Amino acid sequence: MPRFFFARYTRADRLTCAWAGLIALSLASALLTLxxxxxxxxxxxxxxxxxxxxxxxxxxYLDLERSPAWLRGFTLVLSAFAAxxxxxxxx
Length: 91
Prior knowledge:
The chain is mainly α and 91 residues long. The chain is 75% helix and 0% strand. It has helices at 11-32, 39-61, 68-90.
């Protein structure tokens, strides 16, 4: 029985999906600025989307999804840093 290589989910496919996700999150950030809501909410939303983008970059491009402990550690540090930035933004 022949093996079909196109049926596999390759690293290139995962990177392409990650790239598409980053483009979608960037578009969402740009569209969020057009929504007529309070600027503090827009800033928080953009910061949250940036945190999601950082997680995609860490997991897919730096391949930390193979090491969940490191990914969790980096995510914790980035989340704390984002919370600090948001707190300073609100002041």
